[in-house]
Amino acid sequence: MLPFKGQTFKWYRYMNSRRGVFADIYSLVGNVPKGRVITYGLVADFLEQSKGLKVSPRLVGFALHKNKDNKKIPCHRVVFKDGSLSSKFAFGGIEAQRRKLKEEGIAFTSGGRVNLKKCLWKDLKF
To answer: What's the pTM value of the predicted model, to 2 decimals?
Structure first.
């Protein structure tokens, strides 16, 4: 199954190019400021609304996992819609992601999830 809703394999290959959706994902996530997080779903929704790209949150996660430069693209600032962290964080696992977020002042709930009411970034832009 392709990560794009209703897209062909040819379109999928184009979208995976650096000039395609991965570049758009990296651009958007690169703008998330320190002390804020965004969800995989919000990234996907924003790409659909702003560029007409029907991208699944799962593809957003895949693109971020393929990211080679965690200094330029702060993929640790992307979390699940319930504030939980990814066990597949590409740069050291869930505890590394938690540590990076805490260093940036991200608030966590008593259940160990990011407090989205306090930390969710809503000023989405490229």
So the answer is: 0.82
